[in-house]
Fold this protein.
Amino acid sequence: MARLKLKIQIYAGPDIAFGPGKAALLEAIDRTGSISAAARALGMSYRRAWLLVDTCNRCFAAPLVETIPGGGASVTERGWAVLNSYRALERHADSLTTTADYRRISDSLPPD
Amino acid sequence: MARLKLKIQIYAGPDIAFGPGKAALLEAIDRTGSISAAARALGMSYRRAWLLVDTCNRCFAAPLVETIPGGGASVTERGWAVLNSYRALERHADSLTTTADYRRISDSLPPD
């Protein structure tokens, strides 16, 4: 059974401005209300989560995540716009499975 | 300056039947005429190159690479069909940069 997996990364110069890890992190920050709780939920170190947030906040013209005075963090309006467009881009990419080129590859794999 | 990077992997059950590494390896085998020379050209160990060839040969219904008695290796007709379809799939994927969703992300990055 063939399965297509696509990884979409948006580079800004040498930095990865957005990709699967940052998308998952923004969603976890929204669910948990803080960078540290999001990191725990994803089994990621706080340091790594903080660096991912810092990278996308630096890359984009406006921050995607803002820290809340007194603790916690939330996804900004810009953050939601980028996240939603990224998830939509993934759905567009899934449509590659309808192309003749994909079928030519998957038809070369034994059925299972 | 935003740049979209896409990694396309074709899974067959738990195995990666085809992806960027295997595509590059098939092209190098065609250029160099052997798995060992292809491995050297790509800065990859012979063991790793052999394992990549073995995985795609086992995943597909027919081998993508055949070893030549007396030494050397070549890409089979099936190998070329899969490789060409894979490269075409990458070109389809590049067209994601024309979507409104991609523009929404890249427009959020500062110009440079």
